[in-house]
Amino acid sequence: MNIFKTVSDWIDEDDIDIITRRNVILGNPKFGKSTYGRLCLQIFTKKKFPLTYIDPGGIAASIRCTQDNVVIIGGEYGDVELNQVDKVLPVLMDKEVNFIVDTFELDDEFNKEIVGDLFEFFFNWHREYRRVRKYIIDECDYYVPQYHFDRTCKANIIRCVSKARMFGMGFDFITQNFTMIDKTVLKMVDNHLIFNMSDPIDLKRIGELLGERVDSKIKHLAVGRCLIYNKKDKYTYTVDEPESPSAGSTPRLHVKVEKLDILELNPRLQDLIK
To answer: Mind listing the pLDDT tens digit for each residue in 39-52?
Structure first.
């Protein structure tokens, strides 16, 4: 019997284990992938579980509409500029502070260079301290693609994933381009969270990976519903709506994108990153 009804229940199943799971989150646009990412960030922040969110879409900052204890690095709402990241990383990691790395405004080359350097740091830090932390990588096919990749960025992330359990690292890879993700990463994944998908090539590859035909199940999933596949079970879940507003909606013609009204960073963290 499926004892879970929502993704929040699934995350709460085992507090320590959930941090070090390696998940891939797949699906068409507007069916719940980014909502899952924001929900995970919210739950981890409330539980005071350490988490880092790599945010090339500039959408995760909305967490600060309801939580004042997540540091934003880079982007329009940044508490710290990206060129200062080396100075604040050690203290954020040591104090187990949740933080977002917003790379939305960077060009391709510098974006991958920054993220590649970050995961080189993360690998060495976890190898030395062996302390748990979750990493969410949105639009992950950009950083660990099957083809046309920046070798350093991709290699550093794969090295972290390969040692994830040993070093205390967990990963959520979020993408709408399943066939573009590196196969090495997919082979190391523990769970597949699959939202509505319709592309025949994607469906075929998912079926090959899971060892069964899933076309009929996946093509008819409603918004906010996902299937979670792992070695133990295959159940349907509903993604709860996060408290923070969505900042990832597609812009509309003649409608100005509203600026988020975010909370000021907690004074204790302000002092920490000075």
So the answer is: 999 999 999 999 99
